[in-house]
Specification:
The complex is a heterodimer of chains A (321) and B (274). In chain A, 36% of the residues lie in helices and 30% in strands. Chain A has 321 residues and is of the alpha/beta class. In chain A, α9 packs across α11. Chain B is mainly alpha-helical and 274 residues long. In chain B, α2 runs antiparallel to α3, α2 runs parallel beside α7 and α8 packs parallel to α12. Chain B starts with a helix and ends in an 8-residue tail after the last helix. The chains are: A alpha/beta (321), B mainly alpha (274). The interface between A and B is medium-sized, with 34 and 29 residues.
Chain lengths: 321, 274
């Protein structure tokens, strides 16, 4: 569905020197520094995939998504959507995409929500039957019809995001781009939004690309993750694969009756305070059950628990590198 | 051919819908209507009163009598109003560039400039149109102009050309924001210059200034040259029936140049971080 080849975006940044003399110098002779915001990305996305772009602020996620949706012109490379290059045939290709960008709304602030939908109906030349049909589907997932007559300026953020999602889906695009869609939403709005994403993915086979900082979004939605940092792709795969690769260990926490903690040959005693000892072991080499069995032969164990490397550890490790 | 026609009817359909939405927005805030209906005509009627005062005190301005000046003033205000209806958004292009508001237009399957101007169409500009038409009719009467078909065509052609020249200028100035990456808020200044160069005969300015207004920034063609030809006043540059059509031609060329400048700038568009 989407093929990204050799995609790069450079920015020229003016070098600024400190102080007034520096500012004056900058006026006469400007030196530029090239920033590689996105550096040579390659990847392919299939129909109906839900892909999460993650990475710290300023990593190049938004720049990538904006190049993929036709907003920014890449310095080099191509983005094929349904076989056509969006950088060359913008007007044609954007018929197949829908876009929701976080805090930015495409709805008309002054009028009832329905008017914004009607305008899109004309812009995308959606015929009445398809339009009504899509609205029915959206209504069954999001309950959008009760909002249609409400002026957008009177909506809560959660309602407005719902409106924006429906607006982006009205023309039934094959690809939906979501840039931080859950930012600032409360728990129930987040839940509604995630349900919506899963449902339209199921019903319409829409390919969905989202950027997020929300671990819940990643866990709930993304079958595939692309981790970007400094404009470079760090990881590409599904969540458990990435966890296995970056953090192939677990931590066993054992509570004893006294302060003495025995060692074990197949794991490492990483922390020991009072009665509690933490053992780190490689998932491939052994199991928690084995270690517990061995340890319990040497000392009486009061309690055990197992800590797995979670998505936040993954992100910490991936961002740190 | 068929494709071009379908494309055109698509744009017309969207335009009509956008105009309906603009009117709905106006109705949504009725108190604004009253404010505009009072302040806009007042502004132009006062401007006209000043001309009347000056002419009555000095007899004429640079050989132009009172009726001729009214004619010129009327044409200037009408083309100003038309450019305000369609192109006023150009004044704020810099803000759209810096705050990333072109994103929305770029992800839709229509021309970016078209969406920028027409989804923000300023139906209120009509309130500027009324005083302009009144003064223009008054000027026609004073100059005892015979209304023929040719005259009507010339006036319409000239107004289209004048509106395109103004619009082209706004697009050009606005597009500089893509290159400078700063907001160029030129609306006020341009308005001042436009008022002073289209409401009065530019022959009253120094020759160097006239040269600039004729060849470099073709504001002279917005009203001075075509009106001179319609009133049979020799401008010394270009006379005859053809002048209104020259205005149209210059308008089209201005649009092409500034459109290309915009398109080139759009490639440098950086959006804005969220």
């Amino acid at each position: 569905m989407i093929k990204v080849e050799n995609l790069s975006k450079d920015y020229l940044l003016k070098k600024k020197e400190p102080g007034l003399s520096g500012a004056l110098k900058g006026l006469i002779k400007t030196e530029y520094k090239t920033i590689h915001a996105v550096d040579n990305l390659f990847f392919e996305l299939g129909e109906g995939e839900i892909v999460g772009f993650i990475g710290p602020n300023g990593a190049g996620k938004s720049t990538t998504i904006k190049m993929m949706s036709g907003i920014l012109t890449p310095t080099s490379g191509s983005v094929y959507i349904g076989g056509e290059d969006i950088t060359k045939h913008r007007k044609e290709v954007v018929k197949n995409i829908g876009v929701v960008f976080g805090q930015r709304s495409q709805l008309n602030w002054d009028l009832r929500l329905g008017e914004s939908f009607e305008l899109l109906k004309h812009i995308y030349r959606i015929d009445r039957a398809d339009y009504d049909n899509t609205l029915d589907v959206m209504d069954s997932i999001l309950g959008i019809k009760e909002l249609v007559d409400k002026p957008v300026r009177q909506m809560s953020l959660g309602q407005r995001v719902k409106g924006d999602l429906v607006a982006a889906m009205l023309h039934s695009p094959k690809v939906l781009f979501l840039d931080e869609p859950t930012i600032g939403l409360d728990v129930s709005s987040k839940f509604a939004l995630r349900t919506f994403i899963k449902e339209i993915n199921k019903i319409k086979k829409t390919t969905i690309i989202l950027t997020t900082h929300d671990l819940g979004d990643i866990q709930e939605l993304c079958e595939r993750l692309i981790i970007i940092n400094h404009g470079v792709m760090m990881e590409d795969g599904n969540l458990s694969q990435i966890i296995d690769r970056i953090a192939p260990y677990k931590t066993l926490v054992v509570e004893y009756y006294d302060e003495e903690a025995p060692e074990h040959e197949r794991c490492e005693l990483v922390e020991h305070t009072d009665n509690i000892a933490k053992y780190k072991f490689m998932k491939k080499e052994t199991t928690a059950a084995e270690i517990i069995a061995d340890l319990s032969k040497q000392k009486n164990i009061k309690d055990v628990s197992i800590e797995e490397a979670g998505i936040d550890d993954i992100i910490k490790i991936a961002y740190g590198s | 051919m068929k494709k071009a026609f379908s494309e055109l009817s698509h744009y017309m359909d969207v335009t009509w819908h956008v105009i309906k939405m603009a009117m709905m927005t106006i109705i949504e805030y009725p108190s604004n209507i009253a404010g505009w209906l009072i302040s806009n005509p007042l502004q132009f009627i006062m401007g006209f009163a000043i001309i009347k005062f000056v002419v009555e005190s000095f007899g004429e301005i640079n050989g132009w009598n009172y009726g001729q000046l009214a004619f010129l003033y009327g044409i200037s205000v009408i083309s100003h109003a038309l450019s305000m209806i369609f192109f006023v958004q150009g004044w704020f292009m810099g803000y759209y560039v810096i705050y990333g508001d072109f994103d929305r237009y770029l992800t839709r399957p229509l021309g970016v400039l078209y969406q920028f101007f027409f989804t923000n169409i300023n139906v209120f500009g009509v309130t500027d149109l009324i005083p302009g038409i009144l003064v223009f009719i008054y000027g026609c009467a004073k100059c005892e102009i015979k209304i023929t078909l040719l005259f009507c065509i010339q006036v319409i052609v000239m107004l289209i050309g004048a509106t395109l020249i103004r619009g082209g200028l706004y697009i050009f100035l606005g597009s500089t924001s893509f290159y400078t990456r700063s907001v160029v808020d030129f609306g006020q200044y341009t308005q001042e210059i436009m008022d002073k160069t289209t409401m009065y005969p530019i022959s009253m300015y120094p020759e160097s200034m006239q040269f600039i207004l004729t060849y470099l920034i073709p504001i002279g063609w917005v009203s001075f040259y075509p009106v001179s030809s319609l009133l049979g006043i020799s401008s010394g540059i270009c006379d005859g029936l053809i002048v209104p059509f020259v205005t149209l031609l210059i308008g089209l060329v201005m649009m092409l140049i500034s459109g290309a400048f915009f398109t080139r700038g759009l490639k440098k568009y950086e959006s804005a971080g969220n």
